[in-house]
Amino acid sequence: MENQEKQHKRRVRYSGTHPRNYKEKYKELNPEKYADTIEKVIRKGSTPAGMHISIMVKEILDFLQIQPGQIGLDATLGYGGHTKEMLKCLQGQGHIYGLDVDPIESARTKERLEKQGFGEDILTVRLQNFADIDQVSRDTGKKFDFILADLGVSSMQIDNPDRGFSYKVDGPLDLRMNPQKGISAAERLKEVSGEELQGMLEENADEPYAFEIAETVLKWRNKGHAIETTTQLKEVIEEALLFLPEKERKEAVKKSCQRTFQALRIDINSEFEVLYAFLEKLPDVLAPGGRVAILTFHSGEDRLVKKTFKEFHRAGLYSEISKDVIRPSAQECARNSRAKSTKMRWAIRAEI
């Protein structure tokens, strides 16, 4: 009927007191409007949907010793939590360049920080891979007094089922940091050989059941079964580990899911190659006495950072490097479970 009133479209609300669906968490996805809800979620030791809680902020700031007027680089902008704290240290003088390859989240972060008073006069956000820090330095004509690289995947990416970073929720098996470039994890699994997949799982994630998982992927493929969603990949892993005793299986599947998703993510985003390029270029973009702090989240990353820092220290490019890995406090890990695997290492550019 022409005169029929349009139905009011209600916002999707929580189904029950503890919603599982990402899009139903409308309060968590609006932190400015529902600050009380955000505080409650954080107090419980969880990360609100659509947010990222920055890790080891105090330890990073204590080491970087940022002074007003300095020039800095946040090589992995993400949600901008670390960037915001570093900007505060500048007290309106100096500049920070923030890099990110994720066009979706970097645009949101830029807008969020602008609203908090950090505009283009003090912050420049570039949609760029941190492997290209030499290009950033050339383009800006600057060497950096401080650099931070947080190599973890942002919680906003993990929690959003559309990005495919987590086996816990069903979504497309994507795993790309920039969903507009390269091939998805689903596409990678269509073409990878069994031997290559086994090697990927072993090298990128120390997966003990790499052979069994690779064999099951090929079995699914040969039967014409697609592996296009996070749930389907989890089902592959469950099938691959059926030989384990039932009492061990649930925990083993959980850990193998985590490792397999990690291995695929590292592969399709070329994360080790990117990190290697970044580490090799670091001394050339740091100002004399400049400081760099790097947060890693698995052993492969940490080994590469440790090895490169040691090599450049022996070569005289760094005057000092961290002797031991620095870890978040027990209190921080209790407050933010995603901090538990974090390791921090640092280096200081020689005054030459």
What does this structure look like?
It contains 14 helices and seven strands. The chain has 352 residues and is of the alpha/beta class. A seven-stranded mixed β-sheet has the order 3-2-1-4-5-7-6, sandwiched between helices. The N terminus is likely disordered.
Question: What features would you highlight for this structure?
Answer:
disordered N terminus, 7-stranded mixed β-sheet, 352 residues, globular, alpha/beta
Layout of strands and helices, then pairs:
Blueprint: H1 35-43, H2 57-64, E1 71-74, H3 81-90, E2 95-100, H4 103-115, E3 123-127, H5 133-140, E4 144-150, H6 155-159, H7 185-191, H8 194-205, H9 210-222, H10 230-240, H11 246-268, H12 271-285, E5 286-296, H13 299-314, E6 318-321, H14 330-335, E7 343-349
Parallel strand pairs: 1-2, 1-4, 2-3, 4-5
Antiparallel strand pairs: 5-7, 6-7
Largest sheet: 7 strands, mixed
Low-confidence stretches are 1-12, 45-50
User: What overall form do the CA principal axes indicate?
Assistant: globular
Q: What's the arrangement of strands in the largest beta sheet?
A: 3-2-1-4-5-7-6
* Radius of gyration, taken over Cα atoms and rounded to an integer in Å: 22 Å
% residues in beta strands = 5-15%
Number of helices: 14
Mean pLDDT: 86
Secondary structural class: alpha/beta
Number of DSSP E strands: 7
Instruction: Give the fraction of residues assigned to helices.
Output: 40-55%
Oligomer: single chain
The N- and C-terminal alpha carbons lie at a distance of 80 Å
What order do the SSEs take from the amino end to the carboxyl end, as H and E?
HHEHEHEHEHHHHHHHEHEHE
